[in-house]
Design goal:
InterPro entries: AMP-binding_CS, AMP-dep_synth/lig_dom. It holds the Pfam family AMP-binding. One of its GO terms (cellular component) is cytoplasm. Helix content is 29%, strand content 19%. It has 443 residues and is an alpha/beta fold. Helix 4 packs across helix 5. The protein folds into three domains: 105 residues, no CATH class; 165 residues, Rossmann fold, CATH 3.40.50.980; 121 residues, Rossmann fold (3-Layer(aba) Sandwich), CATH 3.40.50.980. The strands form five sheets. A five-stranded mixed sheet has the order 14-15-16-17-18. Strands 5-4-13-12 form a four-stranded mixed sheet. The protein has a four-stranded parallel sheet with strand order 7-6-8-9, with helices on one face.
Length: 443
């Protein structure tokens, strides 16, 4: 079927007009000029015309015709400069291959380099040190009617961390975490990081075959889990059931922060923080090791560009097995905000999620566009910082949710510590760009 959204034959035309004999009028100079018909016949046209009597080096004229509802004048001017730059490059060296022709002018390269230099100079740190900087009486975590301060959360994580160290956890080791959404899940993740080990998140909802594959492939030294889930793990897996009985047993463990003197060796920013299994292009899950080194830049980006920090309340929407869960943890626990946890039932996109956001006065929410699309028009309060990520965000969602909110589009593969680029607050209309690099990052 035909579409009226574009010219049906072609959208871009490149034409070349060969040498045309000029009319010889005695005593008069004549020049060939294309008539201006006042409309663009194609979306974008490049018409080259030879002029036989022009001076050397000026015998080729270019006229660009474009639709003003599609292109700004500045955009076409930039195209002109780039084309001139390319033509000069190939005329200087006729033997140069096309793939070696520099497409950007010197000014454009300088401009892009300046955009990449975002927050350069951030010192790499471990996730552990970022969290321990926040320790105090401020609320760190809420779940249903339960609330933990940073001091309480830190003490509980320290006790489990010291126990894991006694079991052999430390840098260069891996500890699995297979737990439902709960404060204990967060305690377990922090404890693994504090021990110096990397954590392997295991979604209890995964099929047993996938869990068995991950455990066989990653070979964690131990898996922290619950009494309800331990029977879903392979019999060959060493487990640590983290329940009320374990908590009481850990009561005698130190509540002080583990140090490098306690660990098998010093914990360094280049050490692995977590191992995430992605779907893999071949259909076979692939483990991706993510170091601590990018966490400080991510936390700084959360503070500077999303306004995260003390007073902010960040909802944990993503399952632990997705790196977006670490994004949410970083946005809250590594900046001094409050991490809002909820049961899976209350996180279902729709009225339940909307009510949860209002009940807990959530200030920062990260959702995939497919989940956001299921919320009613009045489902989210104005003033909230709304991040969309995980897939392309269609313009209709931007039109619906951007007004009155700081709506941000984020992008990044797992290997880049969750996020590589982030847009400025989106405006209504047009596509959602992936934006600029996060702090201390170049793309």
């Amino acid at each position: 079927s035909r579409s009226l959204a574009h010219q049906p034959l072609c959208q871009v035309l490149i034409a070349f007009q060969g040498r045309q004999p000029l009319v010889d009028l005695p005593g008069l100079d004549s020049t060939l000029r294309l008539p201006d018909i006042g409309i663009a016949r194609f979306d974008l046209s490049f018409v080259f015309t030879e002029h036989p009597d022009a001076g050397a080096g000026h015998d080729l004229e270019l006229v660009i015709e474009y639709r003003t509802d599609l292109f700004e004048r500045t955009t076409v001017q930039r195209m002109t400069r780039q084309l001139e730059w390319i033509l000069r490059a190939v005329t200087r060296d006729a033997d140069v291959s096309v793939r070696r022709v520099e497409l950007l002018t010197a000014d454009e390269r300088k401009s892009l380099a300046g955009q990449d230099a975002t927050g350069a100079g951030i010192t790499p740190r471990t996730a552990v040190s970022l969290f321990e900087d926040q320790v105090g009486d401020a609320p760190a975590l809420v779940f249903k009617d339960q609330s933990l301060s940073y001091e309480d959360l830190n003490a509980r994580a320290n006790q489990l961390a010291h126990h894991l160290i006694r079991l052999g956890a430390g840098p260069d080791t891996l500890v699995g975490v297979a737990m439902p959404r709960s404060p204990e899940m967060v305690v377990a993740v922090l404890a693994v990081l504090k021990s110096g080990a990397a954590y392997l998140p295991i979604d209890p909802g995964y099929p047993r075959a996938r869990i068995a594959f991950m455990l066989d492939d990653a070979r964690p030294m131990v898996v922290v889990t619950t009494s309800d889930l331990v029977h879903d793990l392979p019999d060959t897996t060493l487990t640590l059931v983290f329940d009320d009985d374990t908590t009481r047993e850990l009561g005698g463990s130190p509540v002080t922060n583990p140090t490098d003197a306690d660990r098998s060796r010093p914990l360094l920013p280049q050490d692995c923080a977590y191992l995430i299994y992605t779907s893999g292009s071949t259909g076979i899950p692939k483990g991706v090791q993510v170091p601590h080194s990018g966490v400080a830049s991510l936390a700084a980006t959360h503070v500077d560009r999303l306004g995260a920090g003390p007073g902010s309340r960040v909802l944990q929407f993503a399952a632990l097995s997705f790196d977006a869960a670490f994004w949410e943890m970083c946005m809250s626990l590594f900046t001094g905000g409050t991490f809002v946890l909820a049961s899976a039932e209350r996180l279902m996109p729709g009225p339940a999620l909307a009510q949860l956001v209002r009940d807990h006065q959530v200030t920062h929410l990260t959702l995939p566009p497919t989940a956001l699309a299921q919320l009613a028009e009045d489902g989210l309060p104005t003033g909230i910082t709304l991040v969309v990520a995980g897939e392309a965000c269609p313009p209709d969602l931007v039109k619906r949710w951007a007004p009155g909110r700081a709506m941000i589009n984020a992008y990044g593969p797992t290997e880049t510590t969750v996020c590589a680029t982030m847009s400025d607050p989106l405006d209504v209309g047009g596509e959602a760009p992936i934006g600029r690099p996060v702090h201390d990052t170049r793309v």
